[in-house]
Amino acid sequence: MMVVRVGLEIAPDKEHDFLAYMREESARVRLMPGCLRYEVFRSTDRSGFLLYEEWESVDAFEQFKQSPTLKKSFSVLGPMLAGPPATAYYRAYAEPSR
After folding, report:
1. What span, in angstroms and rounded, lies between the C-alpha atoms of 46 and 33?
2. Phi/psi of residue 85, nearest 5 degrees
C-alpha cells in the first residue's frame, strides 16, 4: 500500500474554484485502478487543505502519476496555489514477527 499526503495552501480568492474542481477530480481519481481512498480535508485552524490518498500498491500510484488525469490537475491547480505543495509519501511495511 502507498499513502500520499499533500498539504496545499490555496489563494483565498480561489478556494471556491478549488473545492468545485476537487469535487469532480476526486470522483474521477477514485475510479482509477488501485485507488483505495482519495479525500480532501480543510484545516480547522488555518486556510490550508490536505489531499490524502491511499493506493493499493506503489505500481498503482506510479500509474496515476503518469496519467492524463494528474497532468490536468497540475495545470488546473497550479494557478490556485498560494505556495508550493508539501508532499509526503509513505509505503506500508510489515513489522517482523516475534
Report:
1. 33
2. -65, 150
In whole angstroms, give the CA distance from residue 50 to residue 7. 5
Sequence ranges of the domains in the chain: 9-91
Task: Give the domain 9-91 fold.
Answer: Alpha-Beta Plaits (3.30.70)
CA atoms within 13 Å, Cβ hemisphere of 2:
16
Blockwise average pLDDT, block size 10, the chain, 98 residues: 96 94 96 97 89 96 94 94 95 71
Q: Tell the burial category of 4 from Cβ atoms under 10 Å away from its Cβ (0-12, 13-18, 19+).
A: middle
Q: How far is CA 42 from the centre of its chain?
A: 13
- pTM for this prediction: 0.88
Query: At 92, which amino acid appears?
Result: A
Q: What is the pLDDT of residue 2?
A: 94
